[in-house]
Write a structure and sequence with these properties.
Rossmann fold, Dihydrodipicolinate Reductase, domain 2, 10-stranded mixed beta sheet, 7-stranded mixed beta sheet, disordered N terminus, binds 6-O-phosphono-beta-D-glucopyranose
Length: 513
């Protein structure tokens, strides 16, 4: 039996987190994700000495390319997107591990060729038949790929031989509950759940991993981490860019499916989960899953009070005039796809009862900023807080996910001088200034985790489906309101006034980021 390893987030466990010799096959190896993220991530981890001694990479795709072409393609991607500069002395060693096999994802013969190529690479590099298949392909091709892999004998059963076949699947896993279930059914028919790694790259971000360390590696937060002391939580994922060249996908998806169903709900589960009794992958994932079970469903009656969707109109971005969403290339005429969504969400369990979680995400906002803010309850309205017209600012713990990764705590302090004047100040920790170098990219961590068999930061089947169940209720309510007018916000602003009202009717405000 393959077993998911203990997670090394806690110190002292890192020796069990050892990547195994393997070949990584990138389906769609000649594509954008491979170019921008996967090949640079592998390069960085190789340079840092984190990859196993024996490994190889095999790009598999339709493009006409040979090994040399793939190496040039990788080099270009690394030179442009890598965290660390390309080191000419190290490059030949890395390049030598890169290979390419041309073929169609639906053609049985291509898989027979892939198998022969894998065996040849494995014998040359002394790799014991361990294979990781990374599906960086459109979801419509997943089924064909998985079935062909199985047919060609490329999926090794969990037979205790110590050799493994693992598969990595990128989002989107479905566009609604039914399609997510269908993709999961195909995956689980051909692979055991323990061989499947569903990526949500937000879970690989350094600051996101730090949520668990912050909560359970310090004694001061957990006693306060509940409805007695916390007034509300805000999660913001703001993006500066518009839909760019991805309208073909995005216009069918929208912000709720693209960002909330996965990334934002995962951030929410890490903030809200109960302490795990061990760092085992499945225990952590069980606890995250419990949060999803407790999310209060937003139905047709609730939708207008709890969810605001909007589209960006024309405006300015970095001083340049930019078109509105509906004018973007590839967006359907009269599209009602939301590029912004804000939600008020409740978690109906003992810890969080009555605490609102305000979530918002959008494209074409004034800046790129992702933050989780925990706002504590105000002090009683006496002493320093007696003046109702100038209430004291409450304590806020802000976790900055990106781009200025760090953590800050807002506290009230006395302004120096003879009078008692109170001023909110920030105790600030920045990764950049404390640790110097740039944090590894999410994909670096996640690829190494798969090589080590650690599934903690991946989505289990039940997680994906539970989040879709919750999202589906909103999609259904929206479907009933199809003809409804969609609010607009000017490109380069913080979203529509309706979203301000969502939070302001509760006597609260969105944070200024
Ligand atoms: C992706 C979404 O999953 O995440 C994109 O499909 C979004 O629309 C991206 O831009 C954001 O990721 P990051 O790491 O840049 O915050």
């Amino acid at each position: 039996m393959e077993r998911h390893l203990h997670n090394p987030l806690t110190a002292g466990l890192s020796d069990v987190h050892r990547p195994q010799p393997c070949t990584l096959v990138i389906f769609g190896g000649g594509g954008d994700l491979s170019h921008r993220k996967l090949l640079p991530a592998l390069y960085n981890q190789a340079l840092d000495g984190e990859l196993p001694a024996n490994y190889a990479v095999l790009g598999f795709a339709l493009e006409e390319m040979n090994d040399e072409g793939f190496r040039d393609f990788a080099r270009e991607g690394i030179e442009t997107f890598s965290r660390q500069k390309l080191d000419p002395a190290f490059w030949p060693d890395f390049a030598h591990k890169l290979h390419f096999q041309q073929g169609s994802f639906t053609d049985a013969e291509a898989y027979d060729g892939l198998k022969r190529r894998l065996e040849e690479i494995e014998s040359r590099f002394g790799i014991p038949g361990n294979r990781i298949y990374y599906l960086a392909i459109p979801p419509s091709l997943i089924e064909a790929c998985v079935q062909q892999l199985k047919r060609a004998g490329l999926v090794m059963p969990l037979d205790g031989s110590g050799r493994f076949s693992r598969i990595i699947v990128e989002k989107p896993i479905g566009r609604d509950l039914a399609s997510a279930r269908q993709i999961n059914a195909v995956l689980c028919k051909n692979f055991n759940e323990e061989q499947i790694y569903r990526i949500d790259h937000y879970l690989g971000k350094e600051t996101v991993q730090n949520i668990l360390v912050m909560r359970f590696g310090n004694s001061i937060f957990e006693p306060l981490w509940n409805s007695r002391y916390i007034d509300h939580v805000q999660i913001t994922v703001a993006e500066e860019e518009g839909v760019g060249t991805r309208a073909g996908y995005y216009d069918q998806a929208g912000a709720l499916r693209d960002m909330v169903q996965n990334h934002i709900l995962q951030l929410l589960t890490l903030i809200a989960m109960e302490p795990p009794w061990t760092m085992d992958a499945n225990v952590i994932r069980d606890n995250r899953q419990d949060v999803l079970h407790c999310l209060r469903s937003i139905d047709r009656k609730e939708i207008d009070r709890s969810v605001i969707r909007a589209q960006y109109g024309a405006g300015f971005w970095r001083g340049q005039e930019v078109p509105g969403y509906r004018r973007e290339e590839g967006v359907a005429n009269g599209s009602t796809t939301e590029s912004y969504v804000a939600l008020k969400v409740f978690i109906d369990n003992w810890r969080w009862s009555g605490v609102p979680f305000y979530l918002r995400t959008g494209k074409r906002m004034p800046k790129r900023a992702s933050e989780i803010a925990i706002q504590f309850k105000s002090v009683p309205p006496i002493f320093f807080n007696a003046d109702r017209s100038h209430p004291l600012e409450p304590n806020v713990l802000a976790l900055n996910i990106q781009p200025n990764e760090g953590l800050s705590m807002q506290i009230a302090t006395k302004l120096p001088g003879p009078k008692v004047k109170i001023y909110p100040v920030k105790m600030d920790f920045r990764y950049g200034s404390t640790f110097g170098e740039a944090s590894p990219e999410a994909y670096e961590r996640l690829l190494v985790d798969v090589m080590a068999g650690d599934a903690t930061l991946f989505m289990r089947r039940d997680t994906v489906e539970s989040s879709w169940i919750w999202i589906q209720a909103i999609l259904d309510a929206w479907a009933d309101n199809r003809s409804r007018w969609l609010p607009e916000y000017e490109a380069g602003t913080w979203g529509p006034v309706e979203a301000d009202r969502l939070i302001e009717t509760d006597g609260r405000k969105w944070r200024l980021l």
